[in-house]
Amino acid sequence: MKNKSLSFWLFMTPTLVALALVVFVPFVYGFIYSFSDWNGLHATEFLGLDHYVNLIQSENFLSAIWFTIKFAVVSIVLVNVIGLGLALLVTQHLKVSNLFRTVFFMPNLIGGLILGFIWQFIFVSAFDSAGRLLGWEFLQGWLADPTTGFWGLVILNAWQYSGYIMIIYIAYLEAVPKELIEAADIDGANPFQRFWKVTFPLVAPAFTISMFLTLSNAFKMYDQNLALTGGGPFKSTEMIAMDIYNTAFSENNMAFAQAKAVVFFILVAAVALTQVYYNKKREVDL
């Protein structure tokens, strides 16, 4: 037993050391630097809560938070609804189910920057041409307007991640006991009742996982935001990750950016833990 315990920790030590050096140590240092005048190389003065006070007065940061929250809420709902719908479709034992699974999952294999530039071409060139041809003004200048720019980001995110979330729902849908579905069918339940009363409660763990993944991804999204809108027009579609990056590397204000990152971490952690807690209470064990 002792040898087994020793071998376990010997194998785990490199991973734990790497995790500490890459995640925990930088986080602690970043938290400390957020109270100083750190310029990326060294800190010379302790400023206390000055950076955090300035955050409250930063219109760009507050606007980025509000925009990110709106984006996260819409994306979470849309990605999970589409992902579950696709999972229900490909688990119907159709002849083309395997082909559909591959096609729906493929966008997740493409990098965010590449997807951003692809959809930028679609929104700017294809939509504009279609709008002029059909006389639909709402298709023209799609990324030049904050509202349509917001929906452009939502569409891109849903198109990329719905297939990934579909895989998670498939795993749980295929584990639902067929006997329960047959019993509900015998009792006279229609397809919607079978899904809502039997299937959906049993795939609640998948909903918890998928919601957590889509939430964290929506809050941390940067590359798609950069490639599609670049935060424009006039920072109206700038998300938190981009605002932090621009503060650090464009404005060269490292300590202030670190304070933003700390607030960002607290916000994401609080929302994610709250979501997991309430979803866990609704799960039904098989």
Summarize the structure in words.
The chain is mostly helical. It has a single domain, classed as MetI-like fold. It contains twelve helices and no strands. The chain has helices at residues 2-33, 50-56, 59-90, 97-105, 112-134, 146-173, 178-186, 191-202, 204-220, 223-228, 240-250, 254-282. Helix 3 packs parallel to helix 6 (146-173). The protein is globular and about 75 Å long. The two termini are 33 Å apart. The model has no long low-confidence stretch (mean pLDDT 86).
Question: Characteristics of this structure?
Answer:
12 helices; 286 residues; globular; single chain; mainly alpha; MetI-like fold
Short description:
The chain has helices at residues 2-33, 50-56, 59-90, 97-105, 112-134, 146-173, 178-186, 191-202, 204-220, 223-228, 240-250, 254-282.
Strand proportion? under 5%
CATH class: Mainly Alpha
What's the order of the H and E elements?
A: HHHHHHHHHHHH
Task: Give the CATH H-level superfamily.
Answer: MetI-like
Largest sheet: none
How many angstroms does the end-to-end distance come to?
A: 33 Å
Q: Based on helices, strands and strand pairing, what is the structural class? A: mainly alpha
In which range does the helix fraction lie?
A: over 70%
Gyration radius over CA:
23 Å
Low-confidence stretches: none
* Average pLDDT over all residues: 86
Provide a count of the helices. 12
Question: Architecture, according to CATH?
Answer: Orthogonal Bundle
Total beta strand runs: 0
Gross morphology: globular
Total separate domains: 1
Show the helix and strand layout.
Elements: H1 2-33, H2 50-56, H3 59-90, H4 97-105, H5 112-134, H6 146-173, H7 178-186, H8 191-202, H9 204-220, H10 223-228, H11 240-250, H12 254-282
Helix pairs in contact: 3-4, 3-6, 3-9, 4-6, 6-9, 7-8, 9-12, 11-12
